[in-house]
Amino acid sequence: MRKRTYTCGLDAAIHVMGGKWKGLILFSLGEGPLRFGALRRAIPGISERVLILQLRELEHSGLVHREVYREVPPKVEYSLTDFGQSLNAAIEPLGGWGEQHMERIEAIP
């Protein structure tokens, strides 16, 4: 597998959290660990399949930790790693900017 190189830090950050859903997953997990069902309910419009794929990618990137508890029925919780928390802190101002300008953005045809 070939090592990926980036043109700048923004390129690297967007690579690990790019797409429509990953930022919302990270934001939702920012409040604390969640089970799969709770995480799905926290993100309206995401399908089960897409959530599974996005969680796997975030786990592979080291942003999300998956904890499996040996119970019947099995319990699985997702949480942010320290690496994921640092990314969440970095994108928090972007979310604030979006909140501040949401009406204007929604009005764009």
Question: If you had to describe this structure to a student in words, what would you say it looks like?
Answer:
This protein is of the alpha+beta class. 56% of the residues lie in helices and 13% in strands. The chain is built from six helices and three strands; from the N terminus they run ααβααββαα. The protein has a three-stranded antiparallel sheet. The chain starts with 8 loop residues before the first helix and ends with a helix. The mean pLDDT is 92.
Secondary-structure topology with pairs:
Blueprint: H1 9-17, H2 22-29, E1 34-35, H3 36-42, H4 48-60, E2 64-69, E3 75-80, H5 82-100, H6 102-106
Antiparallel strand pairs: 1-3, 2-3
List keywords for this structure.
109 residues, 3-stranded antiparallel sheet, single chain, globular, alpha+beta
Strand content: 5-15%
Total domain count: 1
* Poorly predicted sequence stretches spanning 5 or more consecutive residues: none
Q: Over the alpha carbons, how many angstroms does the gyration radius reach?
A: 15 Å
Q: What is the number of strand segments?
A: 3
CATH topology category name: Arc Repressor Mutant, subunit A
The CA-CA distance between the termini, in Å, is 42 Å
Report the CATH superfamily: Winged helix-like DNA-binding domain superfamily/Winged helix DNA-binding domain
Fraction in helix: 55-70%
Q: How many helix segments? A: 6
User: What does the largest sheet look like?
Assistant: 3 strands, antiparallel
What is the string of helix and strand elements?
Answer: HHEHHEEHH
Spatial strand arrangement across the major sheet: 1-3-2
Mean pLDDT: 92
Broad shape: globular
Sheet/helix structural class: alpha+beta
**CATH class call:** Mainly Alpha
CATH architecture grouping: Orthogonal Bundle
